[in-house]
Automatic annotation (TrEMBL):
Source species of the chain: Candidatus Nomurabacteria bacterium GW2011_GWF1_31_48
Cross-referenced Pfam families: 23S_rRNA_IVP (PF05635)
Name listed for the protein in its UniProt record: S23 ribosomal protein, nonfunctional
CDD domains per UniProt: 23S_rRNA_IVP_like (cd16377)
Keywords: Ribonucleoprotein, Ribosomal protein
Length: 115
């Protein structure tokens, strides 16, 4: 299946799902600097996939997918910190953590398909 638009990319869809969860779960977080950082990291996943796709070259797409993968790791790191700081419940952490692992694997597969 040929990808026509970035919205068709599974990793982008999952990135959006993770971003919406992050915004929802941290909505009432009073640590505004933490909240801002994790929101920006999660948004960066989907936005880098979109930007890379719109560049229309595999070389640039690959580069942006690596950036998205890095943002996935940053989001996961922030989730771990959020759990330690008791900003989130274990249940929410597990859902978002597992989603971030899935996104990372999807991005790895996508990058390999461009080689």
């Amino acid at each position: 299946m040929k990808i026509e638009k970035f919205e068709d990319i599974i990793a982008w869809k999952k990135g959006k799902e993770l971003t919406l969860l992050v915004y929802s779960v941290f909505k009432t977080c009073k640590d505004f600097s933490f909240k801002n950082q994790i929101e920006r990291a999660s948004v960066s996943i989907m936005n880098n996939i979109a930007e890379g796709f719109e560049r229309r070259t595999n070389k640039e797409l690959r580069n942006f997918l690596f950036i998205a993968k890095g943002s996935t790791g940053e989001t996961r790191s922030m989730l771990d910190l959020g759990l330690e700081l008791k900003y989130i419940h274990e249940k929410d952490f597990k859902i978002m953590y597992n989603l971030s692992i899935e996104i990372s694997k999807l991005l790895s597969g996508f990058i390999k398909s461009l080689d």
